[in-house]
Amino acid sequence: MPDLPEGRPPPGRNCDRIAVIEHGRVSAIGTHNSLLRTSATYRAYCREQSVA
To answer: Looking at the whole model, is its pTM more than 0.70?
Structure first.
């Protein structure tokens, strides 16, 4: 397994679906590209990880 920065998994660009969880609840489900368009939380996460 490759080394991951800060022990976090990379965003799921190759995943079928990704669930965004905020405050213990699913706030959005979609692909990497759809979540970049529709989820501010996911966009912020990707920006922090420098992968958007």
So the answer is: no
